[in-house]
Amino acid sequence: xxxxxxxxxxxxxxxxxxxxxxxxxxxxxxxxxxxxxxxxxxxxxxxxxxxxxxxxxxxxxxxxxxxxxxxxxxxxxxxxxxxxxxxxxxxxxxxxxxxxxxxxxxxxxxxxxxxxxxxxxxxxxxxxxxxxxxxxxxxxxxxxxxxxxxxxxxxxxxxxxxxxxxxxxxxxxxxxxxxxxxxxxxxxxxxxxxxxxxxxxxxxxxxxxxxxxxxxxxxxxxxxxxxxxxxxxxxxxxxxxxxxxxxxxxxxxxxxxxxx
Length: 260
Prior knowledge:
Low-confidence stretches: none
Mean pLDDT: 90
Largest sheet: 5 strands, parallel
Helix content: 40-55%
Structural class: alpha/beta
Number of helices: 11
Strand order of the largest sheet: 8-7-9-10-11
Order of helices and strands: HHEEHEHEHEEEHEHHEHEHEH
């Protein structure tokens, strides 16, 4: 598509109310001749064009980064009228980040920081359901839920419905039936995703956690169980990768809502 047609498409989207004028300005700036589509901050090159290409703004992985690096990246995304989600926020960086960016939301359990776009937030679309096998899986589940919310979906989380008490899972019949995508977070034997996959018609994204006794091998046992799931609708992400599970589920849910 030519630059002129692209710009016309953006302006038509503003007229029809599909995107806000602020979002249109950010896209036009990223697409303008001579613009790189990223901001070089010295310590990072923030991808300002990712929302146009992929539908969602860049997410900052906080682990190993200084508070100044995180604040700088988040602030630059915010200045371009985009939201910013930071995952795995280092504990020692929390106070500085929250002080510098007081309009953001920090989730201590999920170790995430969400700075919403300054423009009006769109109405959430699509339905993501996050389940945990046990309470110990909640930090990873919170990361998944917060990611799905940041991407613009509605998301419900239900904890502690593991296979040791299947009646707890079966009591969620309505939630299971209404979900567009489900994230199942489990450690120990990692059996829950296969069970869920046998009950629903939507994709199930399995997230193994590093929770478990010695033979769990830091989540490897749960990972192998999930990779060998009998249910056909189960896909598996990395150990403790709540972000990936939530992101993929949100993509499915948003596409489903768009098609309906």
